[in-house]
Amino acid sequence: MGEYGKYVLLLLVGVIPILLFISPLFLLAMNSFFLGENFTIENYIRFFSSKMYLTSLQNSLFIASITTIIIASMGLLIVTLTRKYKRVKRIVKLLTSLPLVFSSYVFCIALIYIYGRTGIVNHFFSIMGLEFPISNLLFSTTGIIFANILFFLPYFIVPLFSSFEDVNPNLEEVAESLGSHGFHKFRRVVFPQVLYGFLTGVLTTYLLVFNQISVILALGAGRIYTLTYQLFAQYEGFQHGMANTIAVVSIVVTLLVTIIFQIFLKKVSSKK
Questions:
Q1: Are residues 23 and 141 in the same domain?
Q2: What's 90-112 look like in SS3?
Q3: Which residues span the domain enclosing 53?
Q4: Is residue 126 part of a domain?
Q5: Cβ(126)–Cβ(62) under 8 Å?
Q6: In whole angstroms, what is the distance from residue 99 CA to residue 101 CA?
């Protein structure tokens, strides 16, 4: 490739990301400052002075945080207990990967058929003259967290298995020869080797849950408000200025979380 071809390639590499990613985000941010045809910060004043929008932001952060904590805890426990058993590991990967076959909205409909008020489980209890005690929880914050855990758990477990496969077995053998076993060996020898992959999985899971909308629409629409639901509702109501404002707030939160995690990940990497 000649010099001219290299410059054309560099131009394409620079221009394509700008056209596909940066320019739409720039236009979205600019439009958030318009109310009708007037340039104003009124949309942001409305957002940060509205209890409904602030509650939606709080709900998004809460649901994402609790879901991620539970998924990280469950995922780490499952992978740690099964990583050395190949057959069990295959079964776990298969079972946890089933939600990946469906969209999150279809997955929620399946949950409704199973755990809903008229679902299979409640029908079974009604035959025995009982009522399923948690049938109403599915359409609540708890139900949304439950659905998120089941759906997004594979996104954490599968990469974590890969991180554990890179663990140096020689270090484990040396630790055992020096009398380190069980939790002490895991905490001091194994976990530091997979910490980077673990934290990457935590960040990915948090961002996926924070920005998802299908579970909210299926289980919480009209009852549980989040930023993504407010964004959807504003666009549906042709309130594009407010919708763009909510989108900007969501992007800023996502960027802040990502930057904080990246700083932490760099510190973890530098200690290796």
A1: no
A2: HHHHHHHHHHHHCCHHHHHHHHH
A3: 44-103+136-270
A4: no
A5: no
A6: 5
Task: State pLDDT tens for residues 55-64.
Answer: 999 999 999 9
To which residue do tokens 């104003």 refer? 40
d(CA 132, CA 125): 6
| Neighbour count for residue 249 (Cβ, 10 Å) | 21
The structure's pTM equals 0.85
Name the packing angle between helices 51-82 and 191-211 (round to 10°).
150
Read off the tokens for 48. 């940060």
Residue 135 DSSP label: G
The answer to whether the beta carbons of residues 152 and 197 sit under 8 Å apart is no
Whether 94 and 221 share a structural domain = yes
Q: Which residue stretches of 32-168 are H helix?
A: 42-49, 51-82, 86-97, 104-115, 120-127, 141-165
Q: Is 15 exposed, middle or buried (0-12, 13-18, 19+ CB in 10 A)?
A: exposed
Nearest to 165, CA basis, from 125, 193, 188: 193
Dist. CA 148–CA 137, nearest whole Å: 14
For residue range 43-55, list pLDDT tens digits in order. 999 999 999 999 9
Coil/strand/helix, residue 74: helix
Pair 31, 241: CB distance under 8 Å: yes
Q: Rounded to 5 degrees, what angle do the CA atoms 68, 71, 74 make?
A: 145
- The residue with tokens 């760099």 is 266
Q: How far is CA 22 from CA 27, 31, 147, 239, 240, in A?
A: 9, 14, 33, 23, 19
